[in-house]
Every structure is written in C-alpha cells, then in structure tokens.
C-alpha cells in the first residue's frame, strides 16, 4: 500500500511538472522541455519494472498530450530520450553516454519538427531553415548544437540528482 501511494505521488508530481513545462516553454524555449521532460520521466521510472515503466510513462504523457497536442512528436522524442538516458548511463561512461545520446536527440528533434510541421501545419522547420541561412549544413549544425546542449545538460542534471537521491535525498 505504501509503495503504491509513493508511486501515485511521484506520478502526480511528474504530471504537474510536465504540464507546467510544456505550457510555459514554447517556441524557442522548447529546448528547455528537451531537458526537463526527459529528466522528469527518467527520474520517475528509476527502479521500476519495464511494464510499470511503460504504464507510468503513459499515465503521465497521455494527459500532457490532451493538454498540448502540438507537442505530440516532441513528447515522443522526450520519452525516448528519458528511457535511453537511464539505460545509457548504466551501460557506458560519461563520454560514451553523450556520444550515443546526441545523435539520437538530434535525429529526434529534426523528426519532431518535420512531423509537427506536416501534421499540425506549423512552420517551425521553415523558420529554423531561414535562421540557418537556407543552408543544409548550418541547419544540421543548429540542430546538432541544440541536441548537444540538451543532452549534456540532461546528463549532468540526471547524474547529479541521482547521486543526491542515493545519498538520502534533498534535506
């Protein structure tokens, strides 16, 4: 009973934080969602069985999708980032994790931009294309730098928070 109450409390906190994040950080600030949402999801599912991980993640993400449907593809990317982050840090060292996480994040960001533009008729990728001077290399560089920043900060925060929690939490 106590474990179920703890899991319910963690889920409610995660849902509130994710809804707040995707409501506040839009447009250019969406990069902050690329850090906060995977961090919240990965910390929420630490130590859970794969079945509970999926159920808990869906319970958190589905209401977020109802609240902000335009974030659908980005939430899917964030979900994958959060799941891979916790797995990668256990499999590899610091550099290996970053090397594996950055390409996944960059590809996810690009696909999320492209899919959001197609499905919801936004022009985010077009705006980014113009910012990059209509140059493919610069566009890849911009998306790659965003992915590097998001991955590095996410990894740093995840490691720090996990270390702190393993020592008895925040007091």
Structural account:
The protein is 83% helix and 0% strand. The protein is mainly alpha-helical and 171 residues long. The longest helix is centred in the last third of the chain and has 31 residues, at 136-166. The chain is globular. The model has no long low-confidence stretch (mean pLDDT 85).
Following the backbone from N to C, one meets helices and strands in this order, namely HHHHHHH
Task: Specify the overall morphology.
Answer: globular
Tell me the number of strands.
0
**Radius of gyration using CA atoms only:** 16 Å
Alpha-carbon distance between the two ends: 25 Å
Oligomer: single chain
Largest sheet: none
Number of helices: 7
Helix content range: over 70%
> How much of the residues is beta strand, in percent?
under 5%
């Amino acid at each position: 009973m106590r474990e179920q109450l703890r899991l319910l409390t963690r889920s409610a906190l995660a849902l509130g934080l994710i809804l707040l994040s995707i409501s506040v950080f839009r447009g250019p600030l969406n990069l902050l969602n690329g850090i906060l949402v995977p961090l919240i999801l990965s910390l929420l599912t630490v130590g859970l069985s794969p079945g509970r991980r999926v159920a808990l993640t869906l319970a958190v993400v589905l209401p977020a999708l109802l609240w902000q449907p335009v974030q659908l593809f980005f939430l899917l990317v964030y979900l994958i980032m959060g799941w891979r982050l916790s797995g990668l840090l256990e499999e590899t060292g610091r550099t290996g994790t970053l090397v594996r996480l950055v390409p996944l994040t960059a590809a996810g960001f690009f696909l999320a931009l492209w899919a959001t533009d197609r499905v919801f008729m936004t022009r985010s990728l077009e705006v980014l294309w113009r910012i990059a001077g209509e140059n493919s290399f610069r566009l890849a560089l911009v998306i790659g730098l965003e992915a590097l920043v998001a991955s590095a900060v996410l990894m740093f925060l995840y490691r720090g928070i996990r270390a702190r929690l393993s020592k008895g939490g925040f007091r």
